[in-house]
């Protein structure tokens, strides 16, 4: 169980919520609402004493154990080594012993065989996001937080990632996204942030009722015959 209690800062305002074991969450909200900041608080990249994993303050857990518990995947891949290949990068993603078979399996799962021995620095933005996903699967944390993982993916890749999110390949997931079709299709619980405050925390079904869509997105999106329609 993951819990945050009364967290406030100059960006976030009195944040409290609880996620049960293996309950997945989607975090929505406008640009600058505080989604990435909340993710960094939850993973203790922004140090605090208000986040608890199974009632244990995560700031008191040693770094290695915390890395196994919660993994924050940033929106972009930062590569410090110009000459690191995909295969080498993934080998570094293991928290403990490297399993080369697992690396090969993930590379074929994500259809990245052609990139295996190429330098990550040369990858396109979508490919870099797939590297981040592959790394998260290998890392295999109890909770993985994805910050805009799908922003640069084509529709086929988006479907692949959707299938992975729906599968048991990863444990508990927290997904920050601006893609409402993805959020709607995943059916995970929703947290909506506005100006650093939680405006909604509840079921996917309730969030995507037309009355809530109007409240949170004005008239720019509507549900018609169970499909989301954007009005630009
Ligand atoms: N280190 C910082 N110092 C000062 N202000 C910051 C810092 N980090 C974030 N902010 C501000 O806090 C607000 C929330 O930022 P955050 O990145 O959490 O938003 P977000 O909801 O993830 O936005 P987006 O959807 O655009 O990625 C923004 O106005 C941002 O400028």
TrEMBL record:
The keyword Membrane does not apply. GO terms for molecular function: ATP binding; ATP hydrolysis activity. Keywords: ATP-binding, Nucleotide-binding, Transport. Pfam families: ABC_tran (PF00005). PROSITE patterns: ABC_TRANSPORTER_1, ABC_TRANSPORTER_2. InterPro entries: AAA+_ATPase, ABC_transporter-like_ATP-bd, ABC_transporter-like_CS, Metal_Ion_Import_ABC, P-loop_NTPase. Residues 2-220 form the ABC transporter domain. It comes from the Bacteria. Belongs to the ABC transporter superfamily. This is ABC transporter ATP-binding protein. It comes from Arcobacter arenosus.
């Amino acid at each position: 169980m993951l819990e945050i209690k009364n967290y406030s800062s100059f960006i976030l305002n009195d944040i409290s919520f609880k996620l049960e074991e293996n309950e997945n969450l989607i975090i929505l909200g406008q640009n600058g609402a505080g989604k990435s900041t909340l993710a960094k608080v939850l993973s203790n990249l922004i140090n605090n004493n208000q986040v608890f994993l199974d009632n244990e303050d995560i700031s008191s857990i040693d770094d290695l154990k915390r890395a196994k518990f919660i993994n924050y995947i940033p929106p972009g891949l930062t590569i410090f080594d110009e000459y690191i290949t995909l295969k080498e990068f993934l080998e570094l993603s293991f928290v403990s012993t490297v399993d080369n078979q697992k690396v090969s399996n993930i590379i074929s799962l994500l259809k990245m065989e052609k990139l295996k021995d190429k330098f990550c620095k040369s990858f396109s933005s979508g490919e870099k996001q797939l590297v981040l996903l592959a790394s998260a699967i290998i890392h295999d944390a109890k909770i993985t937080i994805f910050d805009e993982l799908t922003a640069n993916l084509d529709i086929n890749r988006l479907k692949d990632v959707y299938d992975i999110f729906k599968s048991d390949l990863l444990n508990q997931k927290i997904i920050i996204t601006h893609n409402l079709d993805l959020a709607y299709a995943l059916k995970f619980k929703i947290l909506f942030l506005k100006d650093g405050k939680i405006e909604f925390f509840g079921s996917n079904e309730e969030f995507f009722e037309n009355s809530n869509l109007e409240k949170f997105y004005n008239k720019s999106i509507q549900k018609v015959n169970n499909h989301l329609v954007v009005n630009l």
